[in-house]
Amino acid sequence: MNTNQRPSYSLELLYIIGIITISFSSIFIRWSEAEVSVIAMYRLYLTNLLMLPLAWKYRHELFRLTGRQWLLLTGSGLMLGLHFLFWMNSLRLTTVASSTVILTLEPILVMLGSFWFFRTRANRMMIAGMSLAVIGSIAIGAGDFNASGNALLGDFLSLLGTIAVAAHMLIGKHSRDSISAYVYNFWVFAIAASSMALYNLGNGFAFTGYAWREWGLFLLLAIVPTLFGHYLFNWLLKYINATAVSMAVLGEPVISSILAWMLLDERLTAVQLLAGSLILVGVWVFIRFGSDFKKPAGSAADAKLSEAG
Fold it and tell me: Where is the chain membrane-spanning (predicted)?
């Protein structure tokens, strides 16, 4: 799975922590009564606020970026903002299982994009693991898909959100070779939050007047799935290829569906539970054999990445 020298601690453990924390996102969103764009805005602004104590350490890099780097950060931030807007809206229209299962298309889109832009390839075992996970994910949501009304719209919004986050992941992989994790995350979160602020302003959504419970949910979203989820995955892009990082989303339907069953009374069938086990096996296979997933030396992608530095 390495694309750079590994740190001393386990990347796999951090990877698992990231999967667990992002799974809480759908629960917190369903608990909130605020507009989803307002939730996304404060989720990201509060994350930036929590990151400020480390800003002094990175003060030089924060404001000494090239025009190309700013362009990449802006593109990544806008894609992240669109992901939150589309996917979080989908949770208001369809079940957690259906919404999160569509996110499992992300690694496929990222793998295709990685092949196109970075000339990366996956070995047979990785493809087999991905196939198992996707099949299991589809089975989890099969009982919840509804081809009409609000549920269909929710499924479509989740698909748009998946396309946006795949683009965000690919841009992030390109950016992280020349920008530190802190600087990348700080500006991407700020740009995504600001794009949501403009969206809220244009739609006349209130910025204040929310109950303390709502502010608590905004803060939980900033700490749990954003800092320990999105930030962590963006950091892992330095050491793991983009497709492997995006594979984490395949574990999300399992944990999110279990949490939805426990906390939102969205029940799971025996078939869905079995499918969840299949996803975990697929993710394990992908991680286990991911060490063979590398860019060919001297590829055109290497040249592009060196230009970004």
Answer: 12-32, 38-58, 70-88, 100-118, 125-145, 151-171, 183-203, 215-237, 244-264, 270-287
> Which pLDDT band holds residue 219 (cuts at 50, 70, 90)?
very high
Q: Give kind and range of the element (H or E) at residue 73.
A: helix 67-90
Please give the average per-residue pLDDT across 49-68, as a whole number: 91
Dihedral angle over CA of 248, 251, 257, 263, nearest 10: -70
pLDDT score at 183: 92
Give residue 297's identity as a one-letter amino acid code: A
DSSP string, 160-184: HHHHHHHHHHHHHHHHTTTS-HHHH
Write the CA distances from 138 to 41, 49, 131, 142, 254, integer angstroms.
30, 37, 11, 6, 11
| Alpha carbon distance 25, 137 (integer Å) | 18
Every domain of the chain and the residues it spans: 19-308
Residues 294/3, Cβ–Cβ less than 8 Å: yes
> Does the model's pTM come out above 0.85?
no
In the numeric block, the tokens 């759908």 are attached to 26
pLDDT tens-place string over residues 110-128: 777 767 766 666 678 878 8
124-142 vs 270-288: helix crossing angle, rounded to 10: 160
Residue bearing the bigger pLDDT, 248 or 282: 282
Q: Which two tokens stand for residue 24?
A: 């809480």
Binned at pLDDT 50, 70 and 90, residue 294 comes out as: very low
| 282 within 8 A of 129, measured Cβ to Cβ | yes
pLDDT for 308 beyond 50? no
For residue 130, give the nearest of 304, 302, 287 by alpha carbon.
Answer: 287
Question: Would you tell me the crossing angle of helices 106-118 and 124-142 to the nearest 10 degrees?
Answer: 150
Locus of tokens 């069938």 = 269
> With DSSP H G I counted as helix, E B as strand and the rest as coil, what are the percentages for the chain, rounded to 5?
75, 0, 20
Task: Report residue 240's pLDDT band, with 50, 70 and 90 as the boundaries.
Answer: confident
Question: Backbone phi, then psi, for 205, in 5-degree steps?
Answer: -80, 140
